[in-house]
């Protein structure tokens, strides 16, 4: 499983990794970008030019077209998320030729904090479906 960087700590996914409902051979790997481990100790940005430098980097990013993915994509979003609106998240459908699933949770941007069980169920179901598809493709369906 891969979880995209979401601005927080990789340890956020620890409860999911420890969930007894995941398939026994499932590994959860959450990658944390260097320098993100001690966010609480960072000084506040109170200098507008310094803040602008961060936005400038985002403005300079150039997306390059690439072939769509072929793997399944499952997205999780809060129905009232203003930072990643459900309609915007649904656009990920265009980036895969595989199955696409959009799961809505009640709440806003941090809705998964209060929906750990629902998150685990969605991930478990997606993994079981993928394992079954792989087994069927290999001809060893159970």
SSE layout and pairings?
Layout: H1 14-17, H2 48-60, E1 73-78, H3 86-90, E2 100-105, H4 116-138
Parallel strand pairs: 1-2
Structural class: alpha+beta
Termini distance? 23 Å
Low-confidence stretches: none
- Proportion of beta-strand residues: 5-15%
Q: Roughly how many Å is the radius of gyration?
A: 18 Å
In short:
32% of the residues lie in helices and 8% in strands. With 142 residues, it is an alpha+beta fold.
Q: Which key phrases capture this entry?
A:
142 residues, alpha+beta
Please explain how this structure is put together:
This protein has 142 residues and is an alpha+beta fold. The chain is 32% helix and 8% strand. It has helices at 14-17, 48-60, 86-90, 116-138; strands at residues 73-78, 100-105. Strands 1-2 form a two-stranded parallel ribbon. Helix 3 (86-90) links the parallel strand 1 (73-78) and strand 2. The longest helix is centred in the last third of the chain and has 23 residues, at 116-138. It is globular. The two termini are 23 Å apart.
């Amino acid at each position: 499983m891969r979880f995209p960087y979401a601005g927080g700590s990789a340890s956020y996914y620890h409860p999911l990794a420890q969930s007894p409902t995941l398939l026994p051979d499932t590994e959860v790997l959450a990658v944390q970008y260097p320098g993100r481990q001690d966010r609480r100790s960072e000084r506040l940005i109170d200098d507008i030019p310094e803040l602008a430098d961060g936005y400038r980097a985002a403005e300079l990013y150039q997306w390059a077209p690439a072939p769509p993915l072929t793997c399944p994509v499952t997205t999780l979003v809060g129905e009232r998320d203003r930072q990643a609106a459900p309609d915007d998240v649904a656009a990920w459908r265009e980036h895969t030729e595989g199955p696409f699933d959009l799961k809505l949770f009640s709440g806003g941007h941090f809705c998964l904090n209060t929906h750990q069980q629902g998150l685990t169920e969605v991930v478990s179901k997606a993994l079981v479906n993928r394992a079954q598809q792989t087994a069927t493709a290999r001809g060893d369906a159970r």
